[in-house]
Design brief:
globular, mainly alpha
């Protein structure tokens, strides 16, 4: 009787564990679906606008706009202290009131905006950057609106108000598309119209999220009293992320600076457009990581006894690798559809950028573990090392082989970050991964990207590579199909 009771207790324990995991998977799946609705609208509209940009903007104008966004990508983490990432981590921490977290973040953005105004004024007076005055206004307004938007997005994400984030994402898409069509095609405003449309497409959704937060009662700040202990903890958590943000900028944007100064603004315009095809991959990564940032923190287990984190990483890696291989296969076809006039030459650079995005997405996925244990220092260190590798390779390769050297440097630097994080993550969690299988698939996909540069693109060989990669991930693919079929059957029954 005693042993029978023990067996029943073990069975109940297993049932509870399975039930818990099913809830975790369903939650992750639901959040991915919600963010997909939002991000697909945003990314697809942005993707479809590429022919508009390449038709109404010259390569030089597009290069100018891209350079401004490159500068903005430095300004954002530095002057906001990357406090938005601290928001989502501490909203999930039950030791502090949610409104206190939001108040600390808003205070940091206010102080950062003051410092940014002084800095831009100093740069303008000293004429260190000889750019028109409206570009200084663009940088400041975009910093304020984007920083606040990121804060409220992460806050409402932590509060699981996902529907509001979907609406905000769709607002961004529609306002951006409408503004660009109006300012570029009807008013002929050129690069200024492009920048104005982007400012409006961030400002209005930000205002919407503020209103939503007020309606839910999240803006009750108790006479604006800041919790000093919380402020200190959030700063300690977020400060290393400044270096992480700057290092990611080195990985993803420093190549554009090198290309601009060595090859010219027109070449930078080609490089900027080349990123549009890999943005399909980054769209999928954004959808996943928005949902994963919540699940990784909530479901973290150092021993990963139920295999949740290991399995999610494996399925995510499967999806990213196969999608990357498919993009490489249709790269030239997409370029003919999307890239008008002189921009078509950008197809030569998209292959390595697709692989760079693959490793970048895998690095961000595994960073969920470091966020869960509040180890932002490792995130910063690994990204900085990747940035240093990128800078050195840019300086060596771009003078020798031009833009192709820049994209190769970006791919190698993202590979370094991924490899280092995979090594360091073992000190926090035990993951059951088929790492040799993954490495072999990455070697195949790099080979495929080189084949794509041949005169006839070696399509037959590329197809064989795609099939080999799909075969290597057949277990994950079969399981994904089974889950999809099961969900469809349940929907039909309901």
């Amino acid at each position: 009787m005693k042993y029978r009771n023990i067996r029943l207790q073990n069975e109940e324990s297993e049932e509870k564990k399975k039930s818990k995991m099913n809830v975790a998977y369903r939650k992750l799946g639901t959040n991915i679906l919600m963010f997909a609705i939002s991000s697909f609208g945003t990314k697809i509209i942005g993707f479809l606008l590429v022919p508009l940009y390449t038709s109404f903007l010259t390569t030089t104008e597009y290069g100018i706009a891209d350079m401004l966004y490159t500068i903005l990508s430095i300004i954002l983490p530095v002057f906001s202290i990357d406090i938005a990432d601290g928001v989502i981590r501490y909203v999930l921490d039950k030791n502090y009131r949610d409104s206190s977290v939001l108040l600390v973040a808003i205070k940091m953005i206010f102080l950062g905006s003051l410092v940014l105004v002084l800095s831009l004024g100093l740069v303008r007076v000293t004429s260190y950057l000889s750019i028109p005055n409206q570009y200084y206004g663009f940088l400041f307004l975009n910093f304020v609106f984007t920083s606040l938007y990121n804060i409220f997005v992460n806050y409402l994400k932590g509060k699981e108000r996902i529907k509001n984030l979907v609406v905000a994402g769709l607002m961004c898409s529609l306002l951006n598309a409408g503004g660009n069509i109006l300012f570029l095609t009807k008013l002929g405003m050129g690069v200024n119209g492009y920048l104005l449309a982007n400012v409006i497409s961030v400002a209005m959704p930000m205002l919407y999220l503020v209103i939503c937060s007020w309606r839910y009662g999240y803006l009750n700040f108790d006479k604006l009293h800041v919790n000093k202990q919380l402020e200190k903890e959030m700063l300690v958590y977020s400060a290393p992320l400044i270096l992480n943000g700057l290092a990611w900028w080195m990985n993803n944007s420093l190549d554009r600076v090198f290309v601009t100064f060595i090859c010219g603004m027109s070449a930078n315009g080609l490089l900027a457009v080349a990123y549009k095809i890999p943005s399909i991959l980054s769209m999928l990564q954004t959808i996943f990581n928005q949902a994963w940032s919540l699940s990784a923190i909530k479901e973290f287990d150092p021993k990963d006894k139920d295999g949740f984190i290991g399995k999610v990483y494996s399925y995510y890696g499967c999806a990213m690798t196969i999608t990357s291989s498919a993009l490489l296969l249709v790269n030239v076809i997409l370029a003919k559809i999307l890239f008008a006039n002189d921009f078509f030459e950008a197809w030569r650079y998209t292959g390595m950028l697709v692989i760079a995005n693959l490793f970048g997405g895998l690095s961000v996925c595994i960073s969920g573990v470091f966020n869960a244990v509040k180890d932002t220092r490792t995130l910063a260190i690994t990204t900085i090392m990747g940035g240093i590798v990128n800078a050195v390779l840019n300086a060596i390769l771009i003078p020798q082989i031009g833009v192709q050297g820049a994209v190769f440097a970006t791919m190698i630097s993202n590979l370094v970050v991924w490899g280092w994080r995979m090594h360091k993550v073992r000190s926090y969690i035990t993951l059951n991964l088929r790492i040799m299988r993954d490495i072999l698939s990455y070697i195949l996909i790099i080979t495929q990207s080189i084949m794509g540069l041949a005169r006839n693109h070696l399509y037959i060989v590329q197809i064989v590579v795609c099939i080999c990669i799909a075969t290597m991930y057949r277990h994950e693919l079969i399981h994904i199909v089974e889950i999809g079929v099961s969900r469809v059957k349940k929907l039909k029954q309901n």
